[in-house]
């Protein structure tokens, strides 16, 4: 998919203040790290893949060359289950599409929140259960790819896990229903057959849509997100006191879903 499509909405739901330290856990090729680096912040992207980190560093250098990076980005090779940072090192933290990959997701979540300051905003995204279940059903290769997804999260499950690990979840958004259609086609026609005409055509459509942002298409996608949004993003804060009672509750399957384009 296009490298610059991000899950976290830095404009409406996850505002970044000048001079803050931000963690992008499991940064991959750096799409969220680079988005954060557009602001006057110090952002750290951590990942286990040297190849992805090299790509991220290259794109960050290009962003700086264009004068579009106001902040500083550092990229670190590391394990999400054993973070090399002190407690409360970051003012804000994001983690997108990581916990479904790692062997011990609970430990990863605890580490993610440990290095975040108490009371600080956090955002987590994982694949939405229903599209993910369809992909697993259609394609054996999809969920047996090395380094791929090793688990699915049922509706409300990630909300409950985060609440049990020092995060107060405020709300959830589902995004990227068009990407769900793209992956449906990939799984239907062969995960590695990405040059098959319908797959390649829809990929071009997503790139075109992302660059043009036609209002009608954004409305259609936002509506489809209610049902088939590929990613679910949970926004909230690290609990100010670990022993404080939570104000949040895991949502009912139908009531939890909100959407955005």
Short overview:
It contains 9 helices and 7 strands, in the order βαβαββαβαααβαααβ. The protein has 261 residues and is α/β, with parallel strands linked by helices. Helix 4 (129-138) packs parallel to helix 7 (177-189) and helix 7 (177-189) crosses helix 9 (215-228).
Would you give an account of this structure?
The structure is a single chain. The protein is of the alpha/beta class and 261 residues long. It has a domain at 21-126 and 141-175 and 230-238: Rossmann fold. 37% of the residues lie in helices and 18% in strands. The chain has helices spanning 31-36, 50-65, 105-114, 129-138, 140-144, 157-163, 177-189, 197-212, 215-228; strands spanning 21-25, 42-47, 72-77, 92-96, 121-127, 167-175, 231-238. A seven-stranded mixed β-sheet has the order 3-2-1-4-5-7-6, with helices on both faces. Helix 1 (31-36) links the parallel strand 1 and strand 2 (42-47). Helix 4 runs parallel beside helix 7 (177-189) and helix 7 (177-189) runs antiparallel to helix 8. It starts with 20 loop residues before the first strand and ends in a 23-residue tail after the last strand.
H/E series: EHEHEEHEHHHEHHHE
CATH superfamily of the domain at 21-126 and 141-175 and 230-238: Vaccinia Virus protein VP39
Structural class, by secondary structure, is alpha/beta
Distance between the termini: 17 Å
Instruction: Give the class-level CATH name of the domain at 21-126 and 141-175 and 230-238.
Output: Alpha Beta
* Tally of alpha and pi helices: 9
Which quaternary structure do these chains form?
A: single chain
Helical content, roughly? 25-40%
Percent of residues in β-strands? 15-25%
């Amino acid at each position: 998919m296009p490298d610059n499509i991000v899950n976290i909405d830095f404009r409406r739901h996850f505002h970044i203040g000048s001079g803050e330290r931000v963690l992008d856990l499991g940064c991959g090729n750096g799409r969220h790290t680079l988005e954060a680096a557009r602001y006057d912040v110090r952002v750290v992207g951590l990942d286990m893949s040297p190849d992805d980190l090299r790509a991220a560093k290259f794109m960050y250098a290009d962003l700086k060359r264009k004068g579009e990076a106001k902040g500083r980005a550092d990229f670190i090779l590391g394990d999400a289950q054993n973070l090399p940072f002190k407690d409360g090192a970051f003012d804000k933290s994001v983690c997108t599409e990581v916990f479904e990959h790692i062997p011990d997701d609970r430990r990863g979540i605890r580490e993610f929140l440990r290095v975040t300051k108490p009371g600080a905003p956090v955002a987590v995204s994982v694949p939405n259960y229903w599209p993910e279940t369809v992909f697993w059903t259609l394609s054996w290769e999809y969920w047996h790819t090395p380094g791929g997804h090793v688990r699915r999260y049922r509706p409300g499950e990630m909300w409950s896990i985060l609440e049990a690990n020092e995060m107060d979840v405020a709300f959830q958004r589902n995004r990227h229903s068009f990407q769900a259609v793209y992956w449906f086609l990939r799984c239907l026609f062969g995960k590695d057959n990405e040059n098959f005409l319908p797959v390649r055509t829809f990929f071009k459509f997503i790139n075109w849509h992302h660059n043009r942002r036609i209002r009608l298409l954004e409305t259609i996608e936002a509506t489809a997100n209610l049902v088939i949004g590929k990613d679910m993003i949970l926004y909230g804060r690290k609990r100010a006191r670990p022993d404080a009672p939570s104000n949040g509750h895991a949502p009912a399957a139908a009531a939890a879903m909100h959407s955005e384009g």
